[in-house]
Amino acid sequence: MAMENSRVPTPSIDNWRGKKDLLDVQFAGNKSAHDPTYSVAVAAVAGLDPARDLSPAGGRPTLSPVFNVTVHIYNVRNSQESACLPSLSTAVVSYGDAFLGRGTVPAFCAGKRKEDERVARAWGEGVVVPRFLRDQLAGELAVGEAAVDVQVRMPSDCVSALCSDDMLVCRAKIGGGLAPCELRDVPPQQPPAAGSAN
């Protein structure tokens, strides 16, 4: 039997990137039932009173809201390892793409077959929110239906001068219970150069 071409073609970088993207999608689709789940709750907020802070009659051109954000890890189905939120994790709260506040989430772990949570305070000072969003938020708060977007960025690690983070992306009702989060990878980026301001 004659062998045709025994040389294996070397894939191009673009071909590899395409395959890596496919693998990332396959791994995301193969999430195990034992993986931890993450959720957040926005239990309380100050500085967003519909009459005093959001209304044109209140006379406040900017907002200074403070949110109590609970981050919860449910790791009860995992008997192999703990699930953790690393130090320097940051919660960012927004509404309709308008930034409202930011705060550091304390580092913590939910051990094997356990669940745990921590409360972070996210706040903003002198935040400018467009009038139409303020009116919309005031209306939703008045009927108890206001929800905000919460993103928790978790520093991961750096390999070969590229750093990647994980991010929890959540939408939580103000004063409501725990809302589920989606865990996403943040694309790798170059770390800041030594001595740079970034």
Helical content band = 10-25%
Taken from the alpha-carbon principal axes, the silhouette is: globular
Unreliably modeled segments: 1-30
Distance between the termini: 63 Å
Radius of gyration: 22 Å
What is the average per-residue confidence, as pLDDT, rounded to a whole number?
Answer: 82
- The number of helical elements comes to 3
What fraction of residues sit in β-strands?
35-45%
What is the quaternary state of this protein? single chain
Biggest sheet, spatial arrangement of strands: 5-4-8-9-10-1-2-7
The SSE string, one letter per element, is: HEHEEEEEEHEEE
Q: What structural class results from the helix and strand content?
A: alpha+beta
How many beta-strand runs? 10
The main sheet comes to: 8 strands, antiparallel
Description:
17% of the residues lie in helices and 44% in strands. The chain is globular, with a radius of gyration of 22 Å. The protein has 198 residues and is an alpha+beta fold. 20% of the residues are buried. It has helices at 13-29, 50-54, 131-142, and strands at 37-46, 66-75, 83-85, 89-95, 98-105, 108-110, 114-123, 147-159, 162-173, 179-189.
